[in-house]
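Q: What would this chain look like folded?
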Amino acid sequence: MADRKKILPLLPLRDIVVFPGMVVPLFVGRDKSVAALEAALSFDRMIFLSSQIDPSTNEPEEDEIHRVGTISHVIQMLKLPTAPSRCWWRAHAARRSSTTSRTTGTSR
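A: My prediction, written as structure tokens:
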């Protein structure tokens, strides 16, 4: 069987857990989160959403993000000039990340 690991952009979430089948609106405003969103939009619109352990952390490191999250699809994005972007996501499948890198904003 072929190796099915895929590298996806990582978006840490504050105060929300996204489960498969959910369609949720989220505001994206942190620089690394915006970069992860743009990476998803430039490829196949897929992204790995995972909750932060401490939602008050502004720049979470690898050990501050849960290893389990959802592979999600960016349905729609509204870029606002003076505010965070508003996105609609559809979560497809729960997965465990084998590695995460908040520096590069990716998850395997």
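The beta strands are 8-13, 23-28, 46-51, 68-78, 85-96, 100-101, 106-107.
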